[in-house]
Specification:
The protein has about 260 residues and is of the alpha/beta class. The protein is about 25% helix and about 30% strand. The chain is built from 8 helices and 11 strands. The strands form 2 sheets. Strands 7-6-5-8-9-11-10 form a 7-stranded mixed β-sheet, with helices on both faces. Strands 1-2-3-4 form a 4-stranded antiparallel β-sheet, covered by helices on one side. The relative contact order is 0.13.
Length: about 260
């Protein structure tokens, strides 16, 4: 039975990622939190795709709303699937969008699609994010969303200049790369990721609270990279605070073959 049939039941399964749970939100009758090994990864409200709950999803949601005129369909590649909250949102906001989701954990993807069925227009591909990105045809995508994690950190293969270069090839000339970075003070990982993207893209910006970028707390920074980022793409950090961020950080290169 689909989880809607029993609002009080948490659904759990062991997959390649570990113990995956879909936990009901008692405040919303069709809302669920996806947890992997006890860590909340995503939030899905089947009754309202715009109800994102998590702050990092909300930040990326703002970018997807504002990166193009309202209602215009986009071609989007999502690297990392989870509960498919962002593909569901985009399908709702921009009907007719062509979306491909790459998820490495086949059992997790099957669990989500069975219990929380996504819109039929969303294509789900099982595979490694870096390998699938490298295989994409050049200039295909308006937006690439990178939200790939193993536990609480991304795999090294999605943090390098080689990964950024593969994303730039797969994007249209005016396309946008959106990267979810989770970090803790003093934000050394974020600084390295900013330096890595700046080595490949003409413009790199960040969407986050000022307190987050000052290293006052742990949380998520959403990095945007492209040829020309529209100021309306989100609540972007500006000024000397951003221009000086990541000074001294070095781009992360792929290991020699």
């Amino acid at each position: 039975m689909a989880p809607q049939g029993n609002r009080r039941a948490t659904v759990a399964a062991e997959t390649a990622s570990g113990i995956v749970e879909l936990r009901p939100d008692p405040a919303f009758p069709r809302a669920w939190t996806l947890l992997v090994n006890g860590v909340a990864q995503s939030y899905v409200d089947l009754a309202d795709p715009e109800h994102l709950d998590f702050s990092y999803l909300t930040l990326i949601g703002v970018v997807l709303r504002r990166c193009a005129p309202a209602g215009v369909p986009l071609t989007v590649l999502h690297l990392g699937g989870g509960g498919l909250a962002l593909p569901r949102l985009l399908d709702h906001l921009r009907p007719g969008s062509a979306q491909r989701v790459v998820e490495r954990d086949a059992d997790l993807a099957a669990m989500v699609t069975r219990l929380l069925p996504p819109p039929p227009a969303i294509e789900i591909v099982i595979g490694d994010a870096r390998e699938r990105l490298a295989a994409e045809e050049p200039g295909r995508y308006d937006v690439i969303v990178s939200d790939v994690f193993e536990g609480d950190r991304p795999p090294p293969s999605v943090t390098t200049t080689g990964y950024a270069e593969a994303a730039r090839r797969a994007l249209k000339p005016d396309g946008l790369l959106v990267v979810n970075v989770a970090d803790v003070p003093p934000l050394a990982h974020t600084a390295t990721q900013v330096a890595t993207l700046r080595a490949v893209f003409p413009e790199v910006r960040a969407s986050a609270s000022a307190g987050m970028l000052r290293g006052c707390r742990a949380g998520n920074v959403i990095l945007l990279a492209g040829a020309a980022i529209r100021p309306a793409a989100g609540p972007l950090v500006t000024g000397p605070e951003w221009e000086d961020f990541a000074i001294g950080a070095m781009p992360l290169l792929d290991e020699p073959a």
